[in-house]
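Explain my protein.
***
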Amino acid sequence: MRILVVDDELVSRKKMQKIMEQAGECESYENGTDALEAFTNALESGTPFNLISLDIAMPGMSGIEVLTKIRALEYAKKIDRQDSVRIMMVTSHSDQENVVASLKAGCNNYIVKPFDKERVFSKLESLGFSVG
């Protein structure tokens, strides 16, 4: 499984990366621009990511903006919904507005900070990934 972790906060990014490395090959980025470039390059090279852990609140380009652009790229490439990358939004804001906006933009699940390995693995299993 190929995993992309995107979070502007170093501690959260490293923690998520360490957890995700137990589930598959992991790359991490601190901003949406670099993440979109990595996603596009992986798609073009025929080695797409299976899962993206995406922070909602990031400077420059929010996680919801990144999510929207990823879904637009998949649509343009005619990738079926069942074959699309699974996106789990990560947030310290569990307010309904952010959750609803993420779901409308096409996320598959979300996790609230602080998180731990058990919670992350539980979310991954709910997305159909076998882990642990």
Notes: The first helix runs from residue 10 to 20. The helical segments are 10-20, 32-44, 63-76, 96-105, 117-126.
